[in-house]
Amino acid sequence: MTSSKIFYKVLIIFLFGFFEVAYSQTPTNLPSNVDNISDKQIEAFLKEAEAKGFSEAQIEAAALANGYSAQDIAKIRERINRLKTGTTEVKANTVGTAKLENVTREQIGEVAERTPIAVSDKQEVGKKLETFGSQIFNNKSLTFEPNLRIPTPKGYILGPDDELKIDITGYAYQHYDVKVSPEGTIKIENLSPIYVNGNTIEQAKIKIIERLKTLFAGLQNGRLTADVTLGSVRSIKVTLVGEVNNPGTYTVSSLASAFNALYLSGGPNNNGSFRNIQIFRNNTLIKKIDVYDFLLKGTLEDNITLFDQDVILVPLFKKKVRIEGEVKRNGIFELNEDDDFNTLLNYAGGYTEQAYTSTVNVHRNTKTEKRLQTFDPVANPGFPTQNGDQFYVGTILDRFENKVEIRGAVFRPGEFALGDKIKTLKQLIESAQGLREDAYLSRAILVREQENLDPMYMPIDLSKLMKGEIPDIELKRQDQLLVKSLVEIRQERKIDIEGAVNNPGNYSYAENMSIRDVILLAGGFTDGATSKRIEVARRVYNDESTEKSVEIIAVNISKDLNPAEGGIKLMPFDKIFVRNLPNYEVQQTVIVQGEVNYPGAYTIESKSERLSDVIDRAGGLRPESSISGAKLYRDEKLIFVDFDKALKNKKTASNLFLENGDRIVIPKEKQTVSISGQVLNPTTVAYQPNFSFGDYIAQAGGFTDEAFIRKTYVQYANGSTDRTRNFFGIKVYPKVQQGMSIQVPVRTKVRMTSAERIAIGTGFVSLSAVLLTLVRLL
């Protein structure tokens, strides 16, 4: 059954009853917008239509009676075409019905929506190529839609449904919008119909103005003017047959061209020709289109405007050839019968810069198998092509036929061309502007490829070569000359300076360098430096075994670095040590905080100054101070010191020497004692001189059942701690002091496993048995 018959059957079912069931409505209340019908409903119409048959006249009469327009009928047809081809419904691209701002001309009817062409996403580069030209019809951003916003085209032939706009201007104004009737006429007021079908717009304008002169006398004497322009344009039907992706009849604008219709149909399929597309009008061939002229030259002279009932035929292709490799456009190209390799190469955009053009390979099909042919495209550019040929253009070798190279201590290292000017090693050095002054002349290396491409080293005495004492060496392709400099073949020479200089560190050695030079490079002496005790440590270079591996040299110089004074010359890798004055010290400070008479920062006067000294300098302790709680912080860490002993006996070990950054904190007297941990009532109580350790525990309600009494400990005000001691079951508690904190830890109970309990019980039974046995024996 053809698509047209299915369409009409579905439409009559749609009009006379099916929608009454689907929507539970009567035919008089059918939906006015066919866009609201789903694809599933259309599929149901198709199944229902197979069981019923109706004439086309009945279908058209029913459609008109129910208020459906020709545009609705066209939409139903396109929906059915999409479902039959298995494509997904997309939003209609109706140029004719789109209301664009400032558009002066509209299309009557619908531009048929193209069916999307499925493009495989599994194409492999260099494996599966598209036919050149097919991409233009798969491009979603390209439509070839006719431009409806252009002036009235000259030579436009009028037909039914075209709309004309007639304007009369001058001392009077009149405007008419008239539409060409199916009979080919237009009607203006009470004038008889004017036949314009088949006339050009210019011919129709003359006819209409002549007829309007009977209504407007001013048109005869020139006082009025009349203008006739094209308004809405009609729709036409064109048919695409042959090897197209979606053959059929399409409704397009009367301004549509051949490319517009081809794009709507999806273009030629895999078997279709891009070079010989034919347009028939009234059963006569009027034009042949070669898509390659547009793609390669940009010409659209074959893209003619279509007429109603035109037929576009896409025949089978006759020759397709594939080309890959080093060409600018890899692909499959359709060729004419007489097109040769040179034509194919032009279609492929020519060679790339890496193409090997001496030979080209082609795989050609014979009657029984494939055959490989190789030809010279330069000598034979007109190599004939055959349908199914596969040409491959290779890549040039990644190597040089005449390159030599020189690197290292020459003025212009790099690559050079082996030829008439450079044939020998000496000529290569001269081309590199000669050897640098620091070049190591005793030995250079010539790297040469052997026949099996393995590298080979050839030692060269450059000194003798440049003097002509040894014969010059003839170069070969890929030779490399390596010239080392003196700096590269020896250890980097440095001088180290440490001690009382502003910028100690490493400095590069130079000939005739002295100690004064290095001290100057290091920013000079620091403020506390002495120039009388400078030492230089020098390496000993001696093959004989000696006790000394380094030589120490003592140097005395003046601080002003007077160059007139004598001094030793330095050697590479010397180390210089600059000392400070014996009694020189940068001011060092300590901080005294808390309950002293003059708290603050104090400078250490001598290296023998102690804790008691700085407390005395701070004016001594205040009456409310707690010396037992005093703390010493050194490098922000707490140091436990018995300040009471330090102040009473300055020679005691607790009276530490001061260091830079020390911080001494003397707190107020703390008159409480805190008890925490495993006591019944953890609390803080006032210190009582006559209270013992147990009295304070009693103040907290005593120990709990879980208290680990033997591990009870205290933390004193100065941060030191003391623990409870046991002597044969007698507990000796720590000494009581003001500000202390008593901590009673919890006893951790370790539960025995069942196996451990059984083992202990067994042990007791065994022990009892042994004891009974001993008693009996005694």
Automatic annotation (TrEMBL):
Main location: membrane
InterPro entries linked to this entry: Poly_export, Poly_export_N, SLBB_dom, Soluble_ligand-bd
Example GO BP: monoatomic ion transport
GO molecular function, one term: polysaccharide transmembrane transporter activity
Ranges for domain Soluble ligand binding: 237-281, 320-367, 495-539, 673-707
All residue ranges annotated as the Polysaccharide export protein N-terminal domain in the record: 152-214
One Gene Ontology cellular component annotation held by this UniProt entry: pore complex
Membrane-topology annotation of the record: Multi-pass membrane protein
Location within or outside the cell: Cell outer membrane
Protein name in UniProt: Sugar transporter
Organism: Emticicia agri
